[in-house]
């Protein structure tokens, strides 16, 4: 449905979408619907102005056999790295951890971000 909406409005809509969820048949699932439409399922998806800086990091670092804690740390590191390079990526992290048990929201303030900016 969202792929169709984005595609039908590609000349008026300037947005890509990341859609994620959990269901008993498929477990956790992530879809990327980029600018202009299309639907791509994968183990992770990134978008936005800072994403161009971290595709290589995500490709080289992500492992599908990680547990929740390792995955959350990967996401925090990827976002902090993007923010250290892209002034439009914001100054805090807001995560939604989606599991069989529901959605857990996590807020990481700017003073608690991983220190990638200091190491570049």
Automatic annotation (TrEMBL):
GO terms for cellular component: cytoplasm; proteasome core complex. SUPFAM superfamilies: N-terminal nucleophile aminohydrolases (Ntn hydrolases). One of its GO terms (molecular function) is peptidase activity. The keyword Flavoprotein does not apply. One of its GO terms (biological process) is proteolysis involved in protein catabolic process. Keywords: Cytoplasm, Hydrolase, Protease. InterPro entries: Ntn_hydrolases_N, Proteasome_sua/b, Proteasome_suB-type. This is Proteasome endopeptidase complex. It comes from Rhodotorula graminis (strain WP1).
